[in-house]
Amino acid sequence: MNAVDEDGPYAEDSTLERPRLAPGTAFPPYAFVPGITPHPRTDPRGHGFGRPEPEAAPLDPDAWEANATYRRGIDLLNHGYCWEAHEAFEALWKAAGKRGPGAEFLKGLVKLAAAGVKVREGRAEGAVRHLTAAAAHFQEVAEATGRTRWAGLDLDALARHAGAARDGAAAAARAESARRAGAGSPDASARPVFDWVLVPGRG
Question: What residues does 154 pair with on adjacent strands?
Answer without folding.
Answer: 149
